[in-house]
Amino acid sequence: MGTTNAALELLEHNLRDRPDKTAYLCSGRAHAYRELGEGARCLARLLRERGLSPGERVLVALPDCFAFPVAFLGCLLSGAVAVVVNPELGPEALAHVVNDAGARLRISLEGSTAKWPAGSLEEISCDEVGPLHYAGPGLELCEAFRPTDGDLAYVLSTSGSTGAPKCVPHRHRSLVLPCDLVGKAVLGLTGEDVIFSTSKCSFAYGLINSLALPLRLGATAILHPGKPDPAMVLELVRRHSPSVFFSVPTIFAQILRWWPEVRQRLPMRLCCSAGEALPAELFEEWQRLTGQEILDGIGSTEMAYHFISNSPGHAVAGSAGRLVPGYRARLVDERGEDVAPGHEGQLLIDGPTRTPGCWNPPDAADGAPLATGDLFVERDGFYYHRGRSDDMIKSAGCWVSSTAVEEVLRSHPAVAECAVVADTVGGLSAPAAFIVLGRGVTESPELAGELRRHCRERLPDHMCPVRIRFVAELPRTSTGKLQRFKLRERSTA
Q1: pLDDT for residue 332
Q2: C-alpha separations of 334 from 134, 337, 372, 373, 389 in Å
Q3: For the whole model, what pTM was predicted?
Q4: pLDDT at residue 279 in the model
Q5: How far apart are CA 131 and CA 237, in angstroms?
Q6: Domains of the chain
Q7: How high is the pLDDT of residue 360?
């Protein structure tokens, strides 16, 4: 059975209805839909001239510049499978991707400092706009590859927040359906929006935010190839006035730390968060200072995008939101049985965008719901994150939620960020806390003692951290997700 080529579905209506509208703003330049279509068609033709057959994999190793959507869409038009790679990975990780992808060609930025294995791949070199040294004709849209239901479109890697990343393939529909199920139906996005996402296109959250959503809607997106530090974020907000802002809790928290100095008016009508649970305190402080709510949601690379989300005007602090229509969820105990209403359980999720299976390690979707590893409580249709199953700590014979301890620590005015993991004291497991202090706060033994007292006044003894360590920053992936496994390694070292 045939299905629609996702690139064709995202491009065709824009080239027909709004060819001269700005599709992307990047590095001081505006790029129209006409330019995007021409670039993608040329890239598709170039891939065919290089002898790539449908289904062959191509590494797309580009930063967030206009060349990224050109290359990604060009791959799909040609029938190649786009294996999206973060070009800032270290040499060991890049070598792993090359070996795992089974590709013979990569698309990368001219002058890139990425450490690729020597002689491993044929290369198509790009500048920030598209492929260099190609003046041939573009592929006509009528010549675009016509996929079947089983054909793959693209491959992403998980963020590595729990350890080694996995390669996750997706079919064409997984690029388009989130735009309809979440972007239109839940968030209410339109073609009039200007979208800015700090999450990079090499990750599921950023790919949908910056590529699929704006093209599906006929909107405009902002791209920035650099790292999303708060100064850069606020400058781009000032310069381009986005109406929709997608980010992660870390960035929202960093902006608030700058707030006393900038007091910048924010033009966004919607602020959305994902990647990890948004603390209720951060939601409330952002709303107090900016007058805006943050719409938290949860998704995964395996499901392509959000499957639970808050909606405008109905966001609940501390909640990931309601189940997105079209998805099915269960909360189960350790035996795989449904938990009672209001009780904590591991989230199982299924829906139309689920991956057909992972490559590394080998894994196949067997028809059973995806076990997310995330613990939730559901109340009145809203889902509240309670940590990951592998973040639970056995202390004094009782299970301790790291998230619950972190909520108490963050309520202290000296704490900007924190993470709680298991430590071993006298051969027994107990909570340990890593603390990032607020601006102007100095670490000291006295402050550590004050934080312990703060916890003891609000938590049972077995939940209180036995050790408090002050750190300059918490280890995170490039998407902002906390890497607890690195903290666990440090706590036991």
Answers
A1: 95
A2: 57, 7, 13, 11, 10
A3: 0.82
A4: 84
A5: 29
A6: 6-384 (3.40.50.12780), 392-492 (3.30.300.30)
A7: 52
Hey, what are 306's tokens?
């959000």
CA distance 211 to 213: 6
pLDDT for 162 equals 45
Residue 6 · residue 77 · CB < 8 Å: no
Sign of the alpha-carbon torsion through 221, 223, 228, 230: negative
Q: Write the pLDDT tens digit of every residue in 382-400.
A: 999 887 776 777 676 566 7
Lowest mean per-residue pLDDT among 128-142, 214-228, 235-249, 312-326:
128-142
Residue 62 burial by Cβ neighbours in a 10 Å radius (0-12, 13-18, 19+): buried
Residues in CB range of 440: below 8 A, 6 or more apart: none
Produce one character per residue of 15-37: b if its CB has 16 or more CB atoms within 10 Å, e if not.
beeeeeebbbbbeeeebbbebbb
User: If you count them, how many residues does the chain have?
Assistant: 493
Task: Answer for the pair 425, 357: CB distance below 8 angstroms, yes or no.
Answer: no
Tokens of 70: 């050109």
CA separation, residue 477 to residues 153, 320, 376 (Å): 25, 21, 23
pLDDT digits (tens, 9 = 90+) for 76-115: 999 999 999 988 877 777 777 778 878 889 999 988 877 7
Q: In what order do the strands lie in the sheet with 322-323?
A: 29-32, 22-26, 220-223, 194-197, 244-247, 270-273, 294-299, 306-309, 322-323
